[in-house]
Amino acid sequence: MAEHSDPPANPERTEIFHSAAEARNARIGLWLFALYVLLYGGFMVLNAFFPQRMAVPFFAGVNLAVTYGLFLIVGAFVLALLYMLLVRGSSQGEER
Q: Do 75 and 39 form a contact (C-beta atoms < 8 A)?
């Protein structure tokens, strides 16, 4: 038989309240996501409005489109690692 929980005190108010550490982690994640969106937006603008520039060899004979695309992939990985380092230990003392 499934367990039943008590209904919320105010059913119209269903907000979830987070701890300060969770709010900080969310803020960090949003800033890093915004940074990535700017980088990706730059890639899209170059492709849409300056496609001839994307075809020019940029690094080691590889054109800018491929170089920038690989940079975006590596950049996403680096931002994920940065996020892990920044939020490490921010929830110490909290039970999960």
A: yes
**Residue 95, beta-bridge partner list:** none
Let me know: does 46 contact 53? Beta carbons within 8 Å. yes
**pTM, full prediction:** 0.71
C-alpha distances (whole Å) from 34 to each of 27, 49, 57, 76 are: 10, 22, 28, 12
Which residue do the tokens 């949003």 mark? 30
DSSP-derived 3-state class of residue 74: helix
Angle at 28 between CA 24 and CA 32, to 5 degrees: 170
User: Coil, strand, or helix at residue 58?
Assistant: strand
pLDDT above 80 for 90: no
**Would you give the DSSP letter of residue 4?**
-
Separation CA 46–CA 84 (nearest Å) = 30
